Amino acid sequence: MATFVLVPGFWLGAWAWEEVASGLREEGHEAVPVTLTGLAERAGELTPEVGLETHIADVVDAVESAGPGPVVLVAHSGANMAVTGAADRIPDRVSRVVYVDSGPMPSGMAGIDFRAPDDRAELEKTVAEEGDGWTIPVPAFDADIDPVNLAGLSAERLAEMRRRGTPQPFATVTQPLRRPEPLPGTPRTLVLCTIPLAAVRQMADSGNPVFAMMAGPGWTYRELPTGHWPMLSEPRELASLLAESAGPE
Predict the structure, then answer these.
(1) For residue 122, how many other CB atoms are within 10 A of its CB?
(2) Is residue 171 within 8 Å of residue 51, measured between CB atoms?
């Protein structure tokens, strides 16, 4: 049996993992959902100083508090940066890193660098005009506007995301990730939801520096065709895939 530390992506807290955690526990595993500083029930801790390093420290603390043995560390979406940074720093405490519709970034790269120039400019404008210059507002979560990422989510789920979502500290996107050399050889699994495995491999083979980090020795892959929030659209299926990832390959 494994211990899973579950880290949500932008705007969400531990609440987003409730059904996945329940599914893992039913299979005999331990599950530790995490809320990062400044989000959800910790929204009162949000300040302009909260950034990537803050969230890396949160994840390190969650892993070290989860018990004496190594854990399976799970990152959804934008949590990839904090989880990767934490796994790099305490590799002896992490048996596997699972990236859910996300992946690791190269050293020296910030989350905002992954965006196309137009998307980056639009985000910076939104932060300046609606986020006081230092937070990313909760999106509309409107399936008519974003049908691919929001696929599989009911109207009730979308309303919950709008109601319970909290602004994301912008510094978690602008601070670059500094990684060690050589990188730890921790096994990694990619759970693909909105992008097919074939596309990931094609971009990795083309030399794309981000997708190149998602291929090679130590990687395994699982596909879960749904939207970008599978812990809410397909929680039982995601729990089963996570449990499977903890076993021998």
Answers:
(1) 12
(2) yes
